[in-house]
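User: Can you write out an input/output pair for a complex, sequences first and structure second?

Assistant: Here is one pair. Inputs:
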Amino acid sequence: MTDPLELPAGEYDLALFPADAADASGEPLLSAMDVAVPAGANATVVAHLKEDGSPTLTPFVNDTSAVPAGEGRVTVRHVAAAPAVDVRAGGEVIIDGLTNPNEESLTVPAGTVSADVVLAGTDTVAIGPADLSVAEGAHTIVYAWDSGAAGYDLAVQTVSGTHSAPSGVPGGSAGLADEGSSLPMVAALPVVGLAVAGAGAVRLARTRG
Amino acid sequence: MRPAAASAVLGLALAVGAPTAWVLTQPEAAAGIPLEQPLPATPSVTTRDAAPSAIPSAPAPVRISVPSQGVDARVDAVGIAADGQMELPEDVSRVGWYRLGPAPGAEGSAVLAGHVDDREQRPGALFPLDDAAVGDEITVPDAAGTATRWRVVSRQLITEQVLPLERIFARDGAPRLTVITCGGPFLPEFRSYRDNVVVVAEPVR
């Protein structure tokens, strides 16, 4: 997998060449014409096998919208030369009937899950089980790829920056830190002081008189 | 040769020669390799292994101390409570570190928070926080045995409803430490305080 590439928005012709070919010469192995890259979009182009085993290029748009704090988004993309599959986490089917070249997303609490891929509607394991880390506040994209002959496998891509802040920070419950609780005392002392001073003045005036 | 013929030949030579010489002495429009090669239209990309792997984690903070305010407390890594608020340790003598955000010293705002008090347990570890002064030093040792040192640059009482949560829990920008507890007037009908005490500190260089 390559690291992300920032490109100006527009339409791109994509072509895939063998690693030993001179720059952009000869026949591309695969190509995709006029692939739209809208401004602000985040996309992944996958070179993979179709269900029948022939190679192809498929662009996927990556969801970068925020997820609630404490959670992560998981997307599974079926790019393997295989029929429909189910994805199970901890033995339970979380995605069913996923076909090449489609994807399905869900938002789950962050953490590590043990996941496997089975042929749709069966218990025949095609990939895994593998421990998948679902990063908090990020989009974890899992590719089920390759062919039955070469052995199916998983590839993982993470798109970060989809986190949210908590909804608040709780505090205390006793009221000890309330500075306002000393306010009645602050108000009462001057009243007491004035009363004492007044009484003193009255007595002073009487003794003089 | 007659002068007329001589001038005709000379004129012709001048008419053909001058532009030819001018063209020949001009620098070539292109030289060397095509610009495309040293200045590619698309930047080069790096590749990495895409096999599933565990997420590396930074060492967690284990204590917070503010010597000038007599604060010295153990720190627990906490996440999100069921109501969507930041989780805090039940024990008011301990302080919570928001483990889903940055660790102290990493890019962004590392958040440490604790209950200011509790009906049964009395004042909490961060009770003196609303007396923190600009310049007070905060030390946060981590599980790996190294400590980050911070200096208070700001203390503010903010009504809980208008707390700038996105900025307090920011995961980018310069490293900073944000310490939060409760304060302001106590609202007995809600058994809670109206405000948050927010102290922001910058690294000591």
